[in-house]
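The records we work with from here on pair a chain with its fold. Here is one such record, which you should read through line by line:
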Amino acid sequence: LMERKTPVKINRKEVMLAKLRKSCSCTPQKLKNFFMDFFPVLRWLPKYRCKEYIWGDVMSGLVIGIILVPQAIAYSLLAGLKPIYSLYTSFFANIIYFLMGTSRHVSVGIFSLISLMVGQVVDRELLLAGFDLNDDAPPALGDDSLQNDSLSNTTAFNLTIVGINAECGKECYAIGIATALTFMAGVYQVLMGIFRLGFVSMYLSESVLDGFATGASLTILTAQVKYLIGIKIPRSQGHGMFVITWINIFRNISQANLCDVITSAICIVVLVTAKELGDRYKHKLKFPLPTELVVIVVATLVSHYGKLNEVYASSVSGAIPTGFIPPKVPEFNLMFRVAVDALPLAIVSFVFTVSLSEMFAKKYAYTIRANQEMFAVGFCNIIPSFFHSFATSAALAKTLVKTSTGCQTQISGVISAMVVLLVLLFLAPLFYSLQKCVLACIIIVSLRGALRKFRDVPARYHVNKMDTLVWVVTMSASALVSTEIGLLVGIVFSMLCIIVRTQRPRTTLLGQIQDTSFYEDDLEYENLYTVPKVKIFRFEAPLYYANRNYFLKSLYRLTNLDPNLEVARRKKYEKKEKQHLKKGSHRTANGLGIRETTLQLVPKQIDFQVLVVDCSSISFLDTTGVNTLKEILKDYKNLNISVLLACCNPSVIDSLKRGGYFGRDFGCIQEMLFYSIHNAVLFAKDQK
């Protein structure tokens, strides 16, 4: 016989006080460990193997830096901001993650989905403030354009309504919204790290994340089409942006700029061909082809010397100033306007960063600290927000490139930041004539991975239909409604699917595998032996208030016996028999014989005397679950049918004991509870 161990009583008050004393104590060693944990670079940098690691880190850093520059300029279209702010974001994020990150390989910086979420908030606030969302106004010239807002947009808006007592132009207000949003997202992430709320990411399943990424990719693609064909349509805002934008595109398709269309076609062909060749021959290439940079350089030269902006009215990037703007504290009053929007941004940014960090840590056999990752990505948002940057996250594509080019540590991130710094200080003005349609092509081609998820739908459906439904719902909501609503819908729908699964789980009767002590589903397997006079019922879910009725209905249906109805039928039969004996009559009022009338009420022949409930799949019971088992125990007892429980886990047994299922003194527990189905069946046979 197995006996339960006597539980050790824990004084929770003493434990809490001990933890509090430990956490509040301050010693030199503890202070040192705190700084070493908060800045992991202090642990691994002194142990850096220069001869072994430096070449791979430098090479990967240069490649990522070369990729970062065109992507940063391109993603500024998504964020609705000037390219210089994207370059700032890429620079500061790499430096801060180098100091605070625990992953050796992830590339943290500008990311398309995060840029899209920032851009949607920026557009909404610009519209509410009365600005025109048309971003095709003539670009300002000179390095002072960032600070002289009246040059960059003729529309000015007195921001006293939000607490800024200064006249601020469109660009000034846009970056103000973006930095306030980024600061709030970083604050949320740091608070989540302090309170150890990393478990929130568990509610974002793979299907939800994939559906969200695919839906957001469709939104990104839709937003770039107007740049591809060179038409001027208003930037749609709010719910239904996907549909509204496509309607506007088809209405204005006749105004397409032929120069932009031809340029886009050539760039997409070149980029896709280069990507496909790179994927096919990546095992032969030491590092990926810098196709984006080549396309941008060639396109800029052609646009500049061909005067495409002046002759064909092709939209260009405009002036990108050099140097750094003086830091500025994000506007406190603007934070209240974007506080709600910052929450999904913070969660998505953290989830993508941690999931990528864990994936590559597992691949290269080291560990990361998820809580520290939350601090790292939080400060990658908080600190850069003072330097006119917007939200960041880890990106899969750039991380794959880093690992394929020999990255060993985050030294590569510093090298990438130096490449971006070189562009910021000297090379940025050279991109003045770069067409926006070229940037749109780079963005669209970068979405290949997410859009290819559509090809995986049949395989996904074959593996799990419910997960496929979650993917479709999340993707549709993200594309057709909005990205934030899509993420919320995905999480809620995913949780509802789990609830539905537990509300209507699989139920079955078991049969014995001949000449063994094992029992399996008699609907799934052939040649199973049915134990005479014994029914074995399996319920494959926790038993709680939401599935109580389904449990009872399934039990009654599979055993072909509802004890309540059977008891009622027997009482009616006994009542008719008494009436017959009392009257002594052989005919009833309707002309039928008493024997014919009572034949309809004769108790049915019950083909079993013992019901064994297989509890191996019941992970827990709530009060309703315990009462349900007590109810069937009582109801079947009225029909002289024994109910035996088998394969209960310790928590279920404890719930049954506390609920009084085994009586006050547990004296009958050995005749009601068994550690295997076979033991219960043998006991039932012995009792006959």
Q: What stands out?
A: Residues 136-166, 588-592 have pLDDT under 50 and may be disordered. The CA atoms of residues 186 and 369 lie 18 Å apart.
